[in-house]
TrEMBL record:
<dbReference type="InterPro" id="IPR050190">
    <property type="entry name" value="UPF0213_domain"/>
</dbReference>
<feature type="domain" description="GIY-YIG">
    <location>
        <begin position="5"/>
        <end position="84"/>
    </location>
</feature>
<dbReference type="InterPro" id="IPR035901">
    <property type="entry name" value="GIY-YIG_endonuc_sf"/>
</dbReference>
<comment type="similarity">
    <text>Belongs to the UPF0213 family.</text>
</comment>
<dbReference type="Pfam" id="PF01541">
    <property type="entry name" value="GIY-YIG"/>
</dbReference>
<dbReference type="InterPro" id="IPR000305">
    <property type="entry name" value="GIY-YIG_endonuc"/>
</dbReference>
<protein>
    <submittedName>
        <fullName>GIY-YIG nuclease family protein</fullName>
    </submittedName>
</protein>
């Protein structure tokens, strides 16, 4: 049995300073898709400028739970977390 690949939570900073959060197996590939307009509808109208944060999780379920928790945070708390951990 093969070892499961890790999943990642990622946070993008988009044009205008907004944030987009998602999960992916390959963040670099997914970021490129967002930049080419092949990602989420939101990033088609708010082009991503950079990856602010990536966090590795052991599986998709854990990454999705973290995504849900991050999205539930007030914007001020999201930005504080990014300032501490996201560069």
């Amino acid at each position: 049995m093969s070892t499961p690949r890790p999943w990642f939570l990622y946070v993008l900073e988009c044009r205008g300073g907004s944030l987009y959060t998602g999960v992916a197996l390959d963040v670099a590939r997914r970021f490129a898709e967002h930049q080419r307009g092949r990602g989420a509808r939101y990033t088609r109208s708010h082009p991503p400028e950079r990856v602010r944060l990536t966090i590795e999780f052991p599986d998709k379920s854990a990454a999705l739970k973290a995504e849900h928790a991050f999205k539930a945070l007030p914007v001020r708390e999201k930005r504080a977390l990014l300032a501490r951990h996201g560069g």
